[in-house]
Amino acid sequence: MTMPALLRPSEILATMRGVGGWLEDSEAELLLAAAAWVTRGGGARTLVEIGSYQGRSTVVLGAALRALSPESRLYAIDPHQGTVGAADRRLSRGTPTFDAFCANIEGAGVARFVEPVRSLSYEVAWSRPIDLLFVDGLHDRLNVERDFRHFAPFLAPSAAVLFHDYASYYPGVVAFVDEIVAREGWEVAARAGSMIMVHRPEQQAAQPTPAQERVVSQVPL
Ligand SMILES: C[S@@+](CC[C@H](N)C(=O)[O-])C[C@H]1O[C@@H](n2cnc3c(N)ncnc32)[C@H](O)[C@@H]1O
């Protein structure tokens, strides 16, 4: 008998705690909730993670897809050179993380839902609609904005966008998120720890931007 892949949050969190990185339980829970939200209507969804490191957040999002939407995929973008921090504060250069990342997503049983993209976010040639974008690369204003803007034209009208480290220790993240909320029609949907999720209210979401229309007409769904 094949066992159904049930969503078991406490098991997912236990697996996550065994992976190096920087995600608290409450933040992981919000990632799970966001993944459940964007996959609720069924069909193949596209999730994008910027900044995977050793795969701590990747195993959480991958486990959500395994249980809720196995036809969906998580694109996990990271050059895996081991550089973390914020360019305007302190950058720490560690060891490359790709081998650990692969071992961790394999060990967590989520590798088949994850497409690793070994690149800087803004060098990825992207072309498909995105349902969930998780931004957790470098945490200075320039990099957060560059990560977001590179993918923003592809966000589906009802997409969820999550930023990690929305906190006083990374003022660039706070400044950028506050700006898109104040000026660009994004609304805070939820917060947990230093994770913040934003979305576009339904009315505005119903009006796709010209870029979204172009993308949707180009990509076979
Ligand atoms: C804070 S760590 C990510 C932590 C991870 N999400 C977790 O749950 O542990 C930041 C990662 O972002 C990656 N990174 C830095 N700049 C990037 C960029 N422009 N595009 C993609 N990844 C980037 C680094 O290589 C590093 O592995």
TrEMBL record:
GO BP term, example: methylation
Region forming the signal peptide: none
Biased segments, Low complexity type: 203-213
Keyword annotations of the record: Methyltransferase, Transferase
UniProt GO molecular function: methyltransferase activity
Entries under SUPFAM superfamilies matching the protein: S-adenosyl-L-methionine-dependent methyltransferases
Region described as Disordered: spans on this chain: 202-221
Family matches, as Pfam families: Methyltransf_24 (PF13578)
Protein name in the entry: Class I SAM-dependent methyltransferase
The species this protein was found in: Sphingomonas naasensis
Taxonomic placement: Bacteria, Pseudomonadati, Pseudomonadota, Alphaproteobacteria, Sphingomonadales
